[in-house]
Specification:
The structure holds 2 protein chains of 2 kinds. By secondary structure, chain A is mainly alpha-helical. Helices cover 36% and strands 8% of the residues of chain A. Chain A folds into 3 domains: 55 residues, Orthogonal Bundle (3-methyladenine DNA Glycosylase II, Chain A, domain 3); 102 residues, Alpha-Beta Plaits (2-Layer Sandwich); 55 residues, Alpha-Beta Plaits. Chain A is elongated. By secondary structure, chain B is mainly alpha-helical. Chain B is globular and about 60 Å long. Classes of the chains: A mainly alpha, B mainly alpha.
Chain lengths: 266, 202
């Protein structure tokens, strides 16, 4: 091979490389996007493994979520307490850590109280149980109690007691991972000031106190579906008459409210 | 004409599926198929980059490499061009299409060196496709990649919830077994295109 036949390709590749580099330099300068400097600081504090355990595709996108207040300081499961502390320091200037929120379970019914509709014998996580008729408890809105929230908690603030998760308000960082994880969606973030109104609001599914079922007699279509579906059979109904709910043995599963076709039970 | 376009599309998606028959892009196929949402992001990014890069490499090959008589440089030139192009597209999209950037996310730079992208460009040259056919080939190959990736992601999401897998098979092993079964299923499409062509009298 002569020198000339070698020279042309070398020249061509060098030229192509220079053009490519020039284009990229030009593009980086003119397409530059001004970003929040906090994102860079947070990204630097994260481990940078891009493992995806937090649910974001990279540490960079996790940092963007934290800076955008979509995620808390405890976003990183891998970094452990040090990373959480570093992130909290970075976020101190903003109002995120000032308003501390903690996780709260909107179900206070132990397995014994709620009753079982079957015996579940599958893998020990809430999602597998949820896939089989919504878990073994009779109550559809109730906690499955297999502790998927315990497994996901990076701070170790959740432990199981009497078949229900108990949240330690001192350890809980309010990262909201358990809220996202819970298949029943019955964990909520509430303000940590013992505010009962917040807790009651959280109990969308199951409020044990001062709850009364009212059947709108005028609009009830008298189908009797609620009586047939009630797991503890406390709804009395006869053909041609509207339903009446006996509160004495009611387990407050709210099945009747959910299945009512004309939405007259509240 | 329409039949031929459909046949070319069908061929690239099912009969010569880029993952199961050509064995290209196995790395993202195994790596990004853990859940459906990231698989969607990845395959959309592949679709985008494959279409753009195959068009650019075709132009470069026919206007520069052939006239200069240095076709043997195609691999290194294509890699250089694709890598630059992906970086450029990422910067451009980040500036002017923020929502697209957020949905493609990290997957755009990840496929800079995806062998499927390079493979499709080189295959289009080797098969001597025209410019439009090259783009059609690239897009339909990417759709085939999307099909494989989304199917695999769905299967893996189910596998993750399955209890009865023996311990040694968990993780990568069962993934490869599932991929193998999927590949066998795709062999069911083999030779359908040539049969149709012969039936139509070509």
């Amino acid at each position: 091979m002569s020198f000339m036949s070698l020279g042309a390709p070398v020249l061509f590749l060098t030229l192509l490389g220079l053009v490519a580099a020039g284009v990229l330099v030009f593009a980086a300068r003119y397409f530059h996007v001004v970003t929040d400097p906090k994102i860079e600081h947070i990204a630097a504090a994260l481990p940078g493994l891009n493992c995806g355990a937090c649910g974001y595709s990279s540490c960079q996108s996790a940092a963007e979520a934290v800076a955008g207040q979509k995620a808390g300081a405890a976003v990183c499961l891998v970094g452990g307490p040090e990373t959480v502390k570093a992130l909290e320091e970075i976020l101190q200037v903003s109002a995120v850590s000032a308003k501390k929120k903690i996780a709260f379970l909107c179900c206070s019914r132990t397995p014994l109280e709620a009753g079982r509709k079957m015996v579940y014998n599958g893998p020990g996580d809430c999602f597998s149980a949820m896939a089989l008729f919504g878990g073994e408890k009779r109550c559809e809105g109730g906690c499955i109690g297999l502790g998927s929230c315990v497994a996901v908690c990076p701070a170790g603030a959740i432990r199981m007691k009497n078949g229900l998760p108990v949240f330690d308000p001192d350890i809980c960082t309010g990262c909201g991972l358990c809220v996202k994880k819970c298949p029943k969606k019955i964990i909520a973030l509430i303000h940590d000031n013992q505010n009962d109104i917040d807790r009651k609001k959280c109990n969308e599914y199951c409020i044990r106190t001062d709850l009364s079922f009212v059947v709108d007699q005028e609009h009830c279509i008298k189908c009797g579906l609620c009586a047939k579906r009630c797991p503890v059979e406390v709804i009395s109904w006869e053909k041609g008459s509207s339903a009446f709910i006996n509160r004495d043995r009611c387990v407050e599963c709210l099945t009747c409210i959910r299945i009512c076709p004309s939405k007259v039970i509240s | 004409m329409i039949v031929e376009i459909l046949l070319a599309f069908f061929s690239a998606v099912f009969i010569n599926n880029v993952v199961f028959v050509r064995y290209l892009g196995i790395c993202p196929f195994c790596g990004v198929s853990k859940n459906v949402s990231s698989a969607t992001g990845m395959s959309l990014a592949v679709l985008f980059v494959m279409a753009v890069s195959s068009a650019v490499t075709w132009i470069l090959y026919h206007t520069v490499l052939i006239p200069l008589g240095i076709e043997w440089l195609q691999t290194i030139v294509f890699i250089l061009v694709i890598a630059t192009l992906v970086q450029l597209v990422e910067l451009f999209v980040r500036k002017f299409a923020v929502s697209l950037y957020q949905s493609l996310g990290i997957y755009l730079p990840l496929i800079t060196t995806n062998c499927a992208v390079l493979g499709i460009s080189i295959l289009a040259i080797r098969e001597e496709y025209g410019f439009l056919k090259t783009i059609l080939f690239a897009v339909s190959s990417a759709v085939g990649f999307m099909l494989a990736l989304l199917g695999m992601a769905g299967i893996r999401q189910r596998i993750a919830l399955t209890a009865g897998i023996p311990t040694p098979f968990r993780g990568v092993a069962i993934t490869l077994v599932a991929a193998g079964i999927m590949a066998i299923a795709f062999y069911g499409f083999a030779d359908i295109d040539s049969t149709i062509m012969s039936l139509r009298g070509h």
